[in-house]
Design a protein that fits this description.
With 351 residues, this protein is of the alpha+beta class. It has helices spanning 3-15, 22-28, 35-43, 49-63, 146-159, 176-184, 203-207, 264-272, 275-287, 298-322, 326-350; strands at residues 69-78, 89-93, 98-112, 115-123, 128-131, 138-141, 166-169, 188-193, 198-200, 212-213, 223-229, 236-244, 250-257. It has eleven helices and 13 strands. InterPro entries: IS701-like_DDE_dom, RNaseH-like_sf.
Amino acid sequence: MKSKELELYSDFLIANSGQATATGLAEVLGQAVSHDKITRFLSEREYTSKDLWRAVKAKVREIERDGGCLIFDDTIQEKSWTDENDIIWWHFDHRKGHSVKGLNLLNALYHSGGVSIPVAFEIVKKPVQFCDVATRQVKRASKVTKNEQMRAMIQSCVINQLKFKYILMDSWFSAKENFDFIVQKKKHFIAALKENRLVALSEEERKQGRFVRMSSLELSDQQGVRGWLKGFEKEVLLVRRVFTNKDGSTSLLNLVCSDLTVNFEQVATLYNKRWKVEEFHKSLKSNASLAKSPTRRVMTQNNHVFMSIYAVFKLECLKIRHKVNHFALRTKLYIKATQQALSELQNLRAA
């Protein structure tokens, strides 16, 4: 990995407020580094999770603990005006309730001691093209599912000897295959469950096939029971969270935990850490220029995503040092840049 270009480009993504281009970076550097050199750096090879791990490993080793959490979630960055290819395609956005054009990014975020560091990532690729018989439209599909990608990322973290005890995930990843895989790796999971998930409250009921919907359990906030998920052979904790919305209505969140040594309140507290990946995605989009690269080739688009993830890691390191969050750090940079711009404007008027 060319560390000089990596540091320059990732710093540029943090400091920059406009389009992230090789020409723009060269101009900022006073042509000390040509835009052609930056373009070659982004185009020479594909940067992957292995490169990310090499870049963050030293800091991870400083903060990791046996009780750490590995948090998984994906996010969609819309790219409405970019040409379609293997990574820029249509993905279903659950928040909007329809498909949007852009890139779908799966991240593994390690959280320990108040510090959150990205340790693995995968861009969802859809290289398989086919014609939909019903609509006669060309569509694309992935060769692997996001659940398969998540299991591969967990395997990589285990091989890298990352210290963690819990894996946190939303209901999208709450599949039996994932639960079995995590338990086989001697780790624990805490995951959200959909309301229609079937559970049994005793081993006898499980053996007799007497399952009920998770939504039918009468539980208050942070209360739970022991039980069994249909299709999963081990006993688990089933926990309910109740939230009051701004309009006075209530929302329910059902959780499942494989660790029988913790109580229901601890399960709820541990799962709250999953919000850290939402903060990571927000910083990735707002503070690291994720959507601001006009590149059109898959290689450079992939590498720009990698550089953005690395830029957020650098912001997290600055947060540890200066005790302020990513957005406050960016605000400091903006104020300093504005001050210099005003000073230069005054000089131009006085000339």
